Amino acid sequence: MKIGLLSDTHSFLDDAVFHHFDACDEVWHAGDFGNGEVAEKLAAFKPLRGVYGNIDGQDIRATYPEHLRFTCEEMDVWMTHIGGYPGRYAPAVKADIQRNPPKLFISGHSHILKVQYDPRLQLLHLNPGAAGKQGWHKVRTLMRFDIVGDRAENMEVIELNGR
């Protein structure tokens, strides 16, 4: 399964996303869509899994949950917008993640691209950075990877032009 991962679009969806995710089977959005139009365009393009972020309104919150835990291939995945990262998990998820860690933990919010393995919990943490133009980040980023069985493989970071 080929996955396109993005977060923090903040109501801006670069047309390049469709090019970079064209060969993907699914698109995952780790919150802060910004508006329903972004979600609608992504969902019309590919099957979409997403969570709402702290800036998302009721239209997004009515469709997408705060936390999404699911299995893709054989991989246990947990996606949430404000999740922290290994060694600094957010208080809202810390107890659950320690009690029942997924294999892949995805969050957004920080606008900081991160790929980090947590050896203590044996999970891979991903934050795709920010694909939108709002925020303090200097480079807009996306991620693309494959899920093969219970492993994430062929991880790619994609930098988008301009801010």
Short description:
The chain is an alpha/beta fold and 163 residues long. 17% of the residues lie in helices and 38% in strands.
Secondary structure elements and pairings:
Blueprint: E1 2-6, H1 16-20, E2 26-29, H2 36-45, E3 48-50, H3 58-61, E4 67-72, E5 75-80, E6 84-85, E7 88-89, H4 91-99, E8 104-106, E9 113-118, E10 123-128, E11 140-148, E12 151-160
Parallel strand pairs: 1-2, 2-3, 5-8, 8-10
Antiparallel strand pairs: 1-11, 4-5, 6-7, 9-10, 11-12
Description:
The protein has 163 residues and is an alpha/beta fold. 17% of the residues lie in helices and 38% in strands. It contains 4 helices and 12 strands. It has a 5-stranded mixed beta sheet. A 5-stranded mixed beta sheet has the order 4-5-8-10-9, with no helix packed on it. Strand 11 and strand 12 form a beta hairpin. The protein is globular. The N and C termini lie far apart (30 Å). The model has no long low-confidence stretch (mean pLDDT 96).
